[in-house]
Amino acid sequence: MGSAGTLILAAGKARYLAAVLIAAIFFGCDRPLQSMNSIRIEIDIFSGRPNPGWTLTDAEATELRDLLARASVTSLTPVQEGLGYRGFLIHGMESGGMAGHVRVFQGLILREGGHADQAWRDEAGAESWLHRLAVVRGYGDLLADEESPTTHGDQRTR
After folding, report:
1. Is the separation of the CB atoms in 105 and 117 below 8 Å?
2. Taking the domains of the chain in order of start, what are their residue ranges?
3. Closest listed residue to residue 148, CA positions, set 113, 119, 107
């Protein structure tokens, strides 16, 4: 076989591998297709039943990343109050440099799990922003009895 034949064979293999990869991506998982920037928000409020949540649009995901990027490292930790509102959980931030479980609560951004927990001050108001989104998405009644996220800052402890 000449060099032209080898080139055609290689191109055929590349197309075949590309087709297999695309099929695996689109048909190999049992969940709906999501954006590559898919970030899911969960209101951590219930005990014993699923928490409500929603998926951010790409524009909202970009805005959330911008808010989180303005946070500064802190040694503060939130006051744990047990039942009721325990902040917002952010799922899907692995690509944003915050791998692990991310919680926004009481003016803090917490990465929980992994080798060590880390905390940042929520200086840009990510919790308030998420609270407003929750209200827009129809979850305002769940948060109506909760203090405004902007008042939590004074409740933090070391």
Report:
1. no
2. 1-33, 40-155
3. 107
Distances (CA, A) of 93 to 55, 99, 100: 12, 6, 8
Cα dihedral sign, 147-81-79-45: negative
Closest CA to 122 of 131, 134, 113: 131
pLDDT at 97: 55
Do residues 94 and 142 lie in contact, with contact meaning Cβ atoms separated by under 8 Å? Answer: no
pLDDT at 83: 83
The sign one gets for the Cα dihedral 26, 32, 33, 37 is negative
Q: Are 44 and 90 within 8 A, CB to CB?
A: no
d(CA 49, CA 46): 6
pTM, to two decimals = 0.67
